Amino acid sequence: MDNPLLYATALASAVLALYSYSVFRRRSSAIRDISGPPSPSWIFGHIRQLILSAPYGAHEFKWLDVYGSVYALKGCFGQERLMVADPLALQHILNSPKFGRAPILDNTASLLFGEGSVITASGGCILFSRRNRAYVDADVWTEAGSEHRRLRSALNMGFTAAAVRGYEPVFKRVAEKIADQLEGFSTATDICSVLSPATLEAISQAILGHPTQELGEDFVANNIEIVKLTASHSETHILADAIGSYVPTWVWRAAIYLPTTGAAVARKERSFATQVGGRIVQEKIDAAEQGLEMDNDLFSLILNPNPSDNTKTLSVEDIIAQIALILIAGQETTARISLKANALAFGLLELARHREFQDELRAEIYSNLGANATNMAYENMPLLNAFLKETLRLYPAVPQPDRMALEDTAIPLGESITTLKGERISRIPVRKGQLVTLAIASYQRLASRWGVNPHEFNPSRWLDGKTNQGDAVGPYANLLSFLGGPKTCLGWRFA
Ligand code: HEM
C-alpha cells in the first residue's frame, strides 16, 4: 500500500471504528457513574499521566488522595477504566475466575514465551481468542485452569521454602561477585548494569544449574535486549498497546513472523531457549540414566520427581517451554534495567538516603554472618526483613497490572463509595470486557493499611506493629508486589 490516500483512509476508518465502539460502550457502562479526574486527551486518556509521569505516581497518588481507593479513568480512545486500590476489591479480582489478565498482557506473553509456559497456560489466551468470537466457554476456562495448575504444581517443587534454601550457595556467590564489583568502582556508577546480569546469573545457576557463560553470549545478549524492550515505555508503546488490545489473538500469534526488531528478538529468544534448554535437559537426563547424582537446581528437581506422584511430572517439552519465561520474569522484576521499577536498585537508593539505617542493617548482617557464615538465618534479622518489606511496598515492580471481566459481574468494596448520581454503593457492577487496573502501588500506600506517612520509606513501621495487616491479600507481608491468588508470582521466595 504505497498510496498515501489509502493510508489516510485506513487510519481514518480505524479511528472512526474505535470512536464508535467507545461511544457505544460508554453509553451502557456503570463506570460512567464513578467519579474520577477529567481526561486530558481522547487519544491517550490518562495513560500518559499514569505510566510516563516522573517520579513514579506523580499523578496516581494525587488521584488516590482526591478520589479515594476506587475511581474511574480513561484509557486510550475514550476507553472506560476502573482504578482499584481497595483491599477487598483487589482480593476479589485476583481470586475470581470471572477476571482474567488483559488480552494485551496475555498476547505479549504468548509472543515472548510461546503457548506452553505457565503464564500463557493460565487460560487468558484461550479465553480471549474465544472472546473475539463473542462468547466465553466455562469448559475452556476449566481446561485452561487445570493446565495452569498442573504446570504450577510441578514447577512449585523448585520454589518451596526448602528448595530456595538449597539455592543459598548460589545467591552467596553472586552477592560476593556484586560486592567485589562495587568495591572496584570509585565514581558514580549505573547500579542496574551490575544488578541485571547478576540476577540473570543467580537464576541461571539456580534454575538451569549452569552459569550464564555456558548459555552462550548470544542468548545472554538477546535476553538483555528483551528485558530492555519490555521495560521501555513511551507514547508509541502506549498507542501500540492500545491498538494491540483490539487485535485478535490469531494476529498476535502471526506477529512473531513480522520483520520488526521486537519480533526478531522474540523469535531468537524462543529459538535459543529451545536449543540451549534442550541441550541442558538432555545432559541431565543422560546423567540420571548413568546413575549420577542429580544437582539441586530446579530442572534437576523437576526431572527427578517422586515417581508415585504423577501430578508433578513434566515432559521435556513442558520444561523447555518455561525457560524463556523464568529467565525473563525473574530478571525483569528483580533487577530491571529501566529505572521505573527495580526492586533492588530502589532498595539501594533508599539505603543511600538513610545512612543511619544502612549502618544498623550492615551491623545486623555482619553479626549474623559471623555466627553462621554459610547458612544465613533470615528469620533472625528483623532489620533486613523490614528493609525488604518496605522496599517492596514502596516500589512494586508491576505497579498497575490490568485485568478484564470475563463476564458481567460485580466487584465488592471494603469501603463503600458515593457515585456521581449521589448513590452510596458497596458493589460496582461491571460488564464483560471491562478493564480494571489493579492499583498495586496505590494499595501499598494506603494510610489505613500501612500507617502514617505511607509515602515515606520507614522500615520501622514493620517493627513496631503499626501496619494494619487485615485480611490476607498477597503471599508475602500482605503486599501485592507479587500479586495474589492462583497466579501469584511463582518466584516470590526466590526473589
Ligand atoms: C522482586 C522480584 C519479583 C517480582 C516483584 C515479581 C512479580 C511478579 C508478578 C506481579 C507476577 C504476576 C504477573 C501477572 O499475572 O500479571 C509474576 C509472575 C511470575 N513470576 Fe515473578 N516476580 C519477581 C521475581 C521472580 C523470580 C526471581 C522468578 C523466577 C525465578 C519469577 C517467576 C515468575 C513466574 C514463573 C510467574 C508466572 C506465574 C503464573 O502465571 O502462574 N518471578 N511475578
TrEMBL record:
It is found in: Membrane. The chain crosses the membrane at residues 6-24. Keywords: Heme, Iron, Membrane, Metal-binding, Monooxygenase, Oxidoreductase, Transmembrane, Transmembrane helix. GO terms for molecular function: heme binding; iron ion binding; monooxygenase activity; oxidoreductase activity, acting on paired donors, with incorporation or reduction of molecular oxygen. It comes from the Eukaryota. Pathway: Secondary metabolite biosynthesis; terpenoid biosynthesis. Its cofactor is heme. It holds the Pfam family p450. Its main location: membrane. Heme binds at C489. GO terms for cellular component: membrane. Belongs to the cytochrome P450 family. This is Cytochrome P450.
